[in-house]
Amino acid sequence: MYSAHADHPVPDEPHLALWHAATLLREYRGDGHVAALTTAGLLGLDALVSHTASSDGLPKEFVMARHGWTEEDWAGAEERLRARGLMDGRGHLTDEGVRLRQDLEAETDRLDRAPYEHLGAAGVARLTELAGAFTATAAAAGAFEGVPSQATASV
Description:
Layout: H1 2-6, H2 14-39, H3 44-53, H4 60-67, H5 71-83, H6 95-111, H7 113-140, H8 149-153
Helix pairs in contact: 2-6, 2-7, 3-5
Organism: Streptomyces thinghirensis
InterPro entries: HTH_67
Protein name: MarR family transcriptional regulator
């Protein structure tokens, strides 16, 4: 997805240029995350279920509604994770499941370094300042209504 967005010209308006840059960074990270998930042998729904079962995961109901998964789909993913020893019978990650999620995040972070190294410390600080202000303004205007609070923390 990164390369598709990177082909678009950078908008002239500052807020749209910021949005474009944030999209590029999000998609670059997302592409690395998909690579890490694929390498770990997790299907898309299995990855969502394992994330939801982690300590920093979003609520199951939110994820299911947003992505359109059924209870049957969800149960199938839980069964696949249990078969791999990643989830217990109560729907919690096992120690092995927790380690896998930690390894996935570490690998995603490793794959995501290049754009931030390119920006340098001052560029990352400025981007963080701008994105934080933009997010705060959007949140105050109600842009994230209905989104669990832990989701807006990572926006």
